[in-house]
Amino acid sequence: xxxxxxxxxxxxxxxxxxxxxxxxxxxxxxxxxxxxxxxxxxxxxxxxxxxxxxxxxxxxxxxxxxxxxxxxxxxxxxxxxxxxxxxxxxxxxxxxxxxxxxxxxxxxxxxxxxxxxxxxxxxxxxxxxxxxxxx
Length: 135
Known about the structure:
Layout: H1 5-20, H2 26-30, H3 40-46, E1 52-56, E2 60-67, E3 70-77, H4 80-90, E4 96-100, E5 103-107, H5 109-119, E6 122-125
Antiparallel strand pairs: 1-2, 2-3, 3-5, 4-5, 4-6
């Protein structure tokens, strides 16, 4: 296939739009810091909450936190695999997850988005069961 000037122009325009984010969320994407690391207490201090410990085990530490952004669960994990298994199981119940290396914050969409501006990380969505109304 011969490459023509209009094809190159279209490809260049597509590349520019992809890099610019088409204006949809590019400002928030640019504001996301490097993903935080550390202990549950360190992460809680970063988002200015006093963690109310619920689980303190070797493989997972989990606390309820509340700050001006809202109420959320903050959990840290001993291993990446343990974290992924926990997230995969928890996502069956829906929810919004902010995921970092060996930690996760779970809360309302607005809370998770606000936490992301401090902690970085990636947002994952749980399963949406709203279409399952039953019979």
